[in-house]
Amino acid sequence: MSLAIRRPENLEYTHVRVFKETHQRLLDIAQAEKTSLPRVIEALVVYYLESQEAQQEMSERRVG
């Protein structure tokens, strides 16, 4: 019996499915917020960048 981890044969399909589901969720958010998909994506990018910046500042405080 092999304990090696195998790459799923349908990995590409899984990525496409996840992308489609994520895209649909973003569309749902845009509709609920009465805004456009680009605005939702922009807000996610800003949130991500700000959270990364905050994490970096916290790391620098711990080290310094």
Briefly summarize what is shown.
By secondary structure, the protein is mainly alpha-helical. 77% of the residues lie in helices and 0% in strands. It has helices at residues 11-32, 37-63.
Report on this structure:
With 64 residues, this protein is mostly helical. It has a domain at 36-64. It has helices spanning 11-32, 37-63. The model has no long low-confidence stretch (mean pLDDT 87).
Give the helix level as a range of percent. Answer: over 70%
- Total DSSP helices: 2
- Strands, total number: 0
Elements, N to C (H/E): HH
Distance between the ends: 50 Å
Name the quaternary structure.
single chain
Q: Tell me the strand percentage band.
A: under 5%
Please, what is the average pLDDT?
A: 87
- Sheet/helix structural class: mainly alpha
Radius of gyration: 19 Å
Principal-axis shape: flat
Uncertain spans: none
Largest sheet data: none
Give a topology summary.
Elements: H1 11-32, H2 37-63
Helix pairs in contact: 1-2
